[in-house]
Design a protein that fits this description.
3 copies of one chain form a homotrimer. Chain A is of the alpha/beta class and about 300 residues long. Chain A contains 11 helices and 9 strands. Chain A folds into 2 domains: about 140 residues, Aspartate/ornithine carbamoyltransferase (Rossmann fold), CATH 3.40.50.1370; about 160 residues, Aspartate/ornithine carbamoyltransferase (Rossmann fold, 3-Layer(aba) Sandwich), CATH 3.40.50.1370. In chain A, the strands form 2 sheets. The first copy, chain A, has a 5-stranded parallel sheet. Chain A has a 4-stranded parallel sheet with strand order 2-1-3-4, with helices on both faces. In chain A, α2 crosses α11, α4 crosses α5 and α6 packs across α7. Chain A is globular and about 55 Å long.
Chain lengths: ~300, ~300, ~300
């Protein structure tokens, strides 16, 4: 199954070959991420953001513009006024007739899949529900691949909210295509869901679960941090305690490998200390910047083929 | 009077010849509604939406982009912050110096006309007050023309709120250029205003008014449905009763001609049952999609001429 | 120091030679302000508006589009949702990797300077804090230069809130590069700050302060009006009194030179009477329109050089 006209709904839909094709294309696109490649001239990308997301939305827009294409759409504010009446299906049918590709973000699980069933043009899931954010996961995996020139053989720690952070599920699904060791570090309350554990088992992934970064720090090649949100904790005191012990600082990284890289999907609040920015470990800004070539590659593969 | 540099303020300003020119141009534009025709390269369309309207705004934007042009402007949110101070005239003067054509939506009757008096560039009314939405009416008439290859001789039912739905007035004004029979179906409270009845009489239009769709269903070629809004009814119980009896469903269409088409300007809430979508009658999605070529034709005729 | 890749943070950073280069370039750009000059094809301008500003934002957007470039970004609504969490630095780093130039507006003093320190691409201050709005001041000075073919030798009145209106400081800083007489007219409460007076003294500028326009009207070549905001006055009665005596009307201009021009950065509320619009004095609409060629010149000089 090639990339042309393909929907991007779940990380599960992509195998190792798909990803290698994508990563090679993204590497090629890095040449143009600061200039312009006029291959999508006249194509329109519709952004249907029912939830706010400045970062993901703007990186898709920048990618489309760098490829010579055009953007229209709406953000969460217009969406909330629309939400009073029109069904998602009717909205998607409208965008389907106005554009060549639809990028959707929605708070409801399955919204992107439903949109793809209705639309005749390709649909990209820019995050829906709490379990899917495939293009962020592609970007994350691509960053690792660019840093190490491989993914196989790496030990990857994922730290923070492993239960509700939508990118975690997508990232682990993607990484199942590679031979990695996962170290899953979270408060008890935010351990991965049963479904994700079943998935890792069914794919024979190597993983272990931990309550403290210090237990595994010295073996990590990658530390992927996600935010812990206040609203997950009934007790604010408990939240403050947990948040404190899951912050990543220069001090908590004492004992890490010299070659450790720290990633974060951004935006961050304070779960990664700003003092880390100037250390050798910080790669989250590069990761963010790679969002442009990665999404250029996605748009190019889907709209023009390989 | 040709189309070049013309304002589009009221449906009354357009005669049969204007409309035929527009429809023929729109039909030509259908070829490019999914690709690109670079005839407005470098032209800027300003969207001044003082009221929200995702659908109308996006279809104008898509049309402009398909023609090679560019878009800037603001939506209702920015407008509401502007509304604290600046006069409409000053805002229009600003847009006039920033763009080549202005598309305006406003809650006040006459806002578009006032804008056109101030601006040196052409102004298009994308809906103002409760009596004018000429480009929606053009799109509606174009859809009928495309479906039947003519408008003359058709019997057209208009069902719902015939008093406050701005598109109804514009549509009937446009249809006065053709030889049609109108069947106006509405609750007592939402019958057409005196001015509209006077207009139909003065043009010698053939029309009749009804309280039930069933009275006229079997003779209809077109059924045009508009929403009945809750806020029109002082009594919520009365609203629920009326709404129920003016919903269009597969059942209420029993006895219709095989060739009946159902139109709706969208968005709909539940006045057209979703089960109708897959029937032979439903044309509202095609109608919505034709908004692109119709608005491409408008922009082309106004900015480049015939 | 040339213009290429330069940040525009404070009016103080620009000397007479810089301004003459800018004005000459803007004059050249007037030829293209209604058409298109494809010299920034493929370049992306990011607009980071943390405070609302329809006029400034749209004029930058129109300028970029007229030069063949592209725009992405966010307005104050998205910004307010972002503000809950992400630091300004992280937001700027994101835009830095998505664009070729960043235009920022922010309520905090120094925000633009901070952004410029972080970004690798040029940053333009579209207004921050209460003391800086350099591109508006450039536009204002350019309008004077275009009207009189010079700035030296003119007597320029500045009337209204001279304490909190951010453009006043920037304008006086720019005018210090020319040989002008300043007449500063304001209520006691809104006289210029100590720092601005010290600045004028240090540059040996000729200025005087007044409480009534009538004291200086007959000698003015230019009358620059800025709004007096209600929130500056603890006492609403005092505000109404002051506002009344600082409104500019055809009557208050009795006794002015025939060649007097009245400028205003817009938007205005009622501090310049609408009846003035049709008099020979009004130049604020031309001033607004010149925002396009002036900002085209800025973008061209910074992104392409002289």
């Amino acid at each position: 199954m090639g990339w042309l006209n393909r929907d991007v709904i779940s990380a599960l839909d992509f195998n190792r070959e798909d990803l290698v094709t994508l990563f090679n294309e993204a590497r090629e696109m890095e040449k143009y991420a600061r200039s312009r490649l006029n291959i999508l001239e006249g194509k329109i990308m519709a952004t249907a953001f029912f939830e706010p997301s400045t970062r993901t939305r703007l990186s898709f827009e920048a990618a489309m513009i760098r490829l010579g294409g055009h953007v229209l759409g709406f953000g969460s504010v217009e969406a909330s006024s629309m939400a009073k009446g029109e069904s998602l299906g009717d909205t998607i049918r409208m965008l389907d007739s106005y554009s060549d590709i639809i990028v959707i973000r929605h708070s409801l699980e399955g919204a992107a899949k439903y949109a793809a069933e209705i639309a005749t043009v390709p649909v990209i899931n820019a995050g829906d529900g709490t379990q899917n954010h495939p293009t962020q996961a592609m970007l994350d995996a691509y960053t690792i691949w660019r840093e190490f020139e491989r993914i196989d053989g790496l030990t990857i720690g994922v730290l923070g909210d492993l239960r509700y952070a939508r990118v975690v599920v997508s990232l682990i699904q993607l990484l199942s295509n590679f031979n990695v060791k996962l170290r899953l570090i979270s408060p008890e309350l935010l351990r991965p869901r049963r479904e994700l554990i079943d998935f890792m088992n069914s794919r024979g992934m190597s993983y272990s679960m931990h309550s403290n970064l210090s237990e595994v720090l010295s073996e990590l090649d990658v530390l992927y941090v996600v935010r812990i949100q206040r609203e997950r904790f009934p007790d604010p005191v408990e939240y403050e305690r947990v948040r404190g012990s899951f912050r990543v600082t220069p001090e908590t990284l004492a004992g890490a490998r010299d070659t450790l890289i720290v990633l974060h999907p951004l935006p961050r609040v304070d779960e990664v200390d700003h003092r880390l920015d100037s250390t050798k470990y910080a790669r989250y800004f590069r990761q963010s910047a790679l969002g442009i070539p990665l999404r250029m590659a996605l748009l190019k593969l889907i709209l023009k083929g390989e």
